[in-house]
Amino acid sequence: MTERAATLYEAMGGMDALRRLSNTFYDGVLADPLLAPVFADFTRAHIEHVALWLAEVFGGPADFTAEHGGHQGLLRVHLGLSITEEQRTRWMELMIDAVGKELPKDERLCRRVLEYFDWGTRIARDVSAGPVGQDLGEPGPTPRWSWNGLV
């Protein structure tokens, strides 16, 4: 099935799958002593925002851009978080677990999804070193990730 799906979004199972993935992942994050402090201002709405972002990145509807400011909006919320490499690595460990639990058992699909998360968490870590309100310039449109990686 996933080989025939045109987008990673479709292969994952659409918004329902991304909501499950986000819920499972953030349940782990909020219980994790290393990551919970990064999410001190967490609200359950964050899960929906993440699911919308991921939908857009993986080839689904562009609702995150329409409703939450696109790439600029996503980067801006990471400013001032001072994410460490240790935290980024732990984030990836929890996401690997969530992907294993919530996405179809398709090696190629999971590999592509995790490649995106590795790439994206490195950007989030770098941006998080900047102060809240820093001018980020124009980061360009929301990145898109396909069966072949970054489009």
Number of helices: 7
Largest sheet entry: 2 strands, antiparallel
Question: What is the number of E strands?
Answer: 2
Taking Cα atoms only, what radius of gyration do you get, to the nearest Å? 15 Å
End-to-end C-alpha gap: 22 Å
* Weakly predicted, low-confidence segments: none
Whole-number mean pLDDT: 95
Quick description:
It contains 7 helices and 2 strands; from the N terminus they run H-H-H-H-H-H-H-E-E. With 151 residues, it is mostly helical. A two-stranded antiparallel ribbon has the order 1-2.
Which key terms come to mind for this protein?
single chain, 151 residues, two-stranded antiparallel sheet, 60% helix, globular
Question: How would you describe this protein?
Answer:
By secondary structure, this protein is mainly α. Helices cover 60% and strands 3% of the residues. It is built from seven helices and two strands; from the N terminus they run αααααααββ. It has a two-stranded antiparallel sheet. α2 (14-30) packs across α3, α2 packs across α6 and α6 (85-102) packs antiparallel against α7 (107-128). The longest helix has 22 residues, at 107-128. The model has no long low-confidence stretch (mean pLDDT 95).
